[in-house]
Structures are given as C-alpha cells and as structure tokens.
Amino acid sequence: MSDYELSVIALNDLLSTSCGLYALPSEDINEVFPRIYVGNKSIAENITELCRLGITHILNAAEGKSFMHVNTNSDFYNGTDIVYYGIKANDTPYYNLSSHFEKTSDFIDKALSQKNGRVLVHCREGYSRSPTLVIAYLMVHHKMDVKTAVSLVREKREIGPNDGFLKQLCQLNAKLAVENKH
Questions:
Q1: Residue 87 half-sphere exposure, CB side, CA atoms within 13 Å?
Q2: What is the mean pLDDT of the chain?
Q3: Which of 9, 12, 66, 134 has its CA 20 to 30 A from that of 18?
Q4: Cα–Cα distance measured from residue 98 to residue 108, given in angstroms and rounded to the nearest whole number
Q5: Of these residues, 19, 51, 123, 170, which one is catalytic?
Q6: Phi, psi dihedral angles at 59 (to 5 degrees)
Q7: Contact (CB, 8 A) for 140 and 101
Q8: What's 84's domain CATH number?
Q9: Radius of gyration of the chain (CA)
Q10: Domains: count for the chain
C-alpha cells in the first residue's frame, strides 16, 4: 500500500463514525472556521438569509447548469454587495480540484482581510467540493496539516470529500511539508 493510500484511508477514518458510517450534512450552512461558512445549493440561492448572516463573499465550487451544479453567478447576486467567484468543478475522483486551490484560497483570504468579511463556500450539497476548498485554504493560509484541517472542518459539519479530492489534499500536504509551510 502506498503512502497516498494510507493517507486517504486515515482521512476517511476522520470523516466517518466509529462504525465506519458517513453522515450527510444536517444543516444547510455551518460556520466551520471564524467567518467561513460551508453550505449547499439551498442556502446559496437564499439571498435573504445570506444577507441576514452578513455573507459578503460567495465561492461557488459547483458553478453550472447540470443537476450536479448550482446555477448561480455574479448576476444572481445583483443588487447585493456580495462578491462572487465561481468554478465549474465536478464532484468526481478524477476531477483536478487542486488546480483551483491557489485562486480559491486567495479569494477566501481576501474576503477575510476585510473588517466584516464573511465567506460562504458552497457546492450542491456542501459535502465534497466546498469543504475540500476550505480545507486547502486552512492548510495554505493557516499552516495546518491535512489531518488537523480535515478534523477542524468535520467537527463543525458533516463532510465527505471523495477519495480523489482527499488524495489531492494529501499531495498538497506533502508539497507544503517540503516547502516547510506547516
């Protein structure tokens, strides 16, 4: 078994219950780190609730029109002060989500650099794509290792990034360790 497989297995152990079961999110939105929220399609389309929560920035990790995506864009939030950024990511183990880690992490960091910045990172279910991007942000900008970042987000929300995304987080972890950035 390779180091990657051991790492993905270890991360899956953090995500599942002691019985090996996985839970779907019980809420539409959860604050997983101060001023960073992970949510689903329902909350992303509820402008009234977003404004009530003080969301200033939205990162859509599933932009698109298909069933597995969320059809919002900057025009959807016209008339609000919400800053929007979207990526057309697919929730499959073969999708290279890591190609977006730098830009999405910088978007989150810039949002939080504002005095009252609050960012919603969402995908269709708030279960795989969006938590993966938040975990990458925590690793890059808060110098957390992958296990710490996964555990922190999992404590606040039921998540289950697919094995391909977990592999990409393990690769980021190795890269940051070599660069001595965590």
A1: 23
A2: 92
A3: 134
A4: 15
A5: 123
A6: -115, 110
A7: yes
A8: 3.90.190.10
A9: 16
A10: 1
* Contact (CB, 8 A) for 30 and 157: yes
Cβ atoms within 10 Å, residue 163: 15
Calculated CA dihedral for residues 93, 68, 62, 82, nearest 10 degrees: -160
Per the structure block, which two tokens stand in for 90?
């697919």
Contact criterion met (CB below 8 Å) for 4 and 170:
yes
Catalytic, 123? Answer: yes
- The residue behind tokens 């604050």 is 31
Q: Look at residue 24 in the predicted model and tell me its pLDDT.
A: 78
Length of the chain: 182
Torsion sign across C-alpha atoms 52, 55, 61, 66: positive
Tokens of 23: 């839970």
- Helices 101-113 and 129-141: angle between axes, nearest 10 degrees: 70
The alpha-helical segments, DSSP class H, found in the chain are 3-15, 41-44, 47-53, 101-113, 129-141, 146-156, 163-178
The larger pLDDT score, comparing residue 139 to residue 67, is at 139
